[in-house]
Amino acid sequence: MAILSTPRSAVQLASKGRPLKEHLFRIALMASLAIALAFLAMLLLYVVEKGWPRLNSMLWENQPSIRRPETSGIQSGILGTLWIIALTAVMALPTGILAAIYLEEYADRTKWYNKLIELNISNLAAVPSIVYGILGLGIIARWLQFGFTVMTGAVTISLLVLPIVIISAREAIRAVPPSIREGSLALGATQWQTIYRQVLPASIPGIATGSILALSRAIGEAAPFLMLGAATLVRFNPEGVWSSFTVLPLQIYSFISRPQEEFSILASAAIVILLAILLLMNSVAIWLRNRYQKRW
Amino acid sequence: MTSGQRRLSAVATAALVVSLAAACGGDAKPGSDGSTSSAAPATEAGATLSGEVKIDGSSTVAPLTQAASELFGEEQPQVKVPVGTSGTGGGFEKFCAGETDISNASRAIKDEEKAACEAKGITFTELTVATDALTVVVPKENDWATCLTTDQLKKIWEPAAEGKIKTWKDVDAKFPAEALKLYGPGTDSGTFDYFTDEINGEEGASRKDYSPSENDNDIVTGVSGAKGGLGYFGFTYFEENIDKLKALEIDSGSGCVAPSVEAAQGGKYTPLSRPLFIYPSTAAVKRPEVAAFLDYYASNINAIAKDAKFVPLNAEQEAKLKADITSLKSAG
Predict the structure, then answer these.
(1) How far, in Å, CA of A92 to CA of A110, rounded?
(2) Which residues of chain B have a CB within 8 Å of the CB of A83?
(3) Sequence-separated (6 or more) residues with CB below 8 Å from residue B215
(4) Which of A98, A221, A273, B180 is the most buried (most CB within 10 A)?
(5) Residue A69 resides in a domain
(6) pLDDT digits over A198-225, tens only?
(7) What pTM was estimated for this model as a whole?
(8) Is residue A131 part of a domain?
């Protein structure tokens, strides 16, 4: 809206005699926005309304139960998801950000191998998640003998989000004006000091936002876990990285395929919890961006 | 500390907080689900066991094994029993790779799966734990059909029916010309394997112009929403949707038989009642927690089956299961 309204007088001058087109364009823009928001609102309303009877503390206090859907919880799924996300953050974020720094600050973009790497990273970001599941099953679970554990899940999901982290971190680093780097170098700082003291702090809002969006994508993944054979009924919480586990999307998937109506209500309640975790993470992203944003 | 370093450390702290939150939440609270044991009395199991019994396989058998896992957990809270639902075939693949201890199956193990197990040196025992009555369903508003012969079912589902049998009138001249809308499980399912084998005479041979789904609830929705709908799945899904669906009686030559617990148990509901299996690996049974779980499963089998809404074993089958477990443990 801000962009639309600032140059209004100029646009009005230019579009004199064509107010209809101008209006239609604005309506089209608003309609697009409204459609996106309306679908989100409908989804939220639907799941909250359906899951309402089960949105209580039993959800996170109890373990899932196939026998008692009315008191069944999703504790193992909530904790499994948090474990996976935390481990993924620990593995994928440093690797991704360091890779991005290399590609932006050190790599010679005219060299063929760097071009090849860039092309491959873009391609990897578009690979369907089930393919990462197959990779995780074949290489991490079986060849590396990690088994069907939290570690296998986290490594697989790290690989899945790594390209997204790299791409968003590169964008953020590229957005730092060259004058900042040049000023720092001119004052006698080394390249490392320039990156550590100037470029990285300046790009943190962008990197943080991109990273959290990447992790948010990881939260909703079910396909790779299905492939990895994470069990659907797990009545214990993960106790470490070598523990069996389940995640929320898998629990939701198994609930909706049960015949009893109570399970589909429970699935809706679990979806609300999943969305709440997602919204919480996205709010942290917005907060980080606003807190550290710098204008030149 | 420069302002840049301060920002970096703020982000690092945020990441740390997230990971700590996950780590601290890991306290296990066995039996915190407020449910008190009812279906099975706690038998004196002696020492408290620990460890993990890994189970995967058929999604049809899973609810039964999951119910067993839940009840067993009340007796042995330290033993973890995760149950996966990779399907009968997917379960055997993991089982024969030595990745699981017990495999759930809605059909008997195939020769090529046996060979895969042998290649890895994995031996196993087949145990029948429950019976399922595959139920052929139509919507409530279907007022013309109450019983189909197996020949008529074959006429509907055989590969040659594709594109030819389009209305109920094509099945039987007495039926109205209502369009036939077919729903069934997808080709990865053990239910599909069993049905095609029994009805069409060849495993996996089926017409392809039906709506397949891995989620039986989709079949319920599809059939109940179309006047000429017809589908098939396990008995439990029919029982839970008895207000929307009508189960057809099946005539395999000796009269029409409706699917029911008694008919399936007594072997009268043929050919669509089938045994459901679990396959424990011989090596795993040597571990006390696996042996204890199997023992519990067999001793309380019919309480578990009733609880999970499965067709329980008859007296003869139950005695065989218990004898099998005993000999399995002594062999180990």
Answers:
(1) 27
(2) 22-23, 26
(3) A256, A257
(4) A221
(5) yes
(6) 999 889 888 988 998 899 888 988 888 8
(7) 0.78
(8) yes
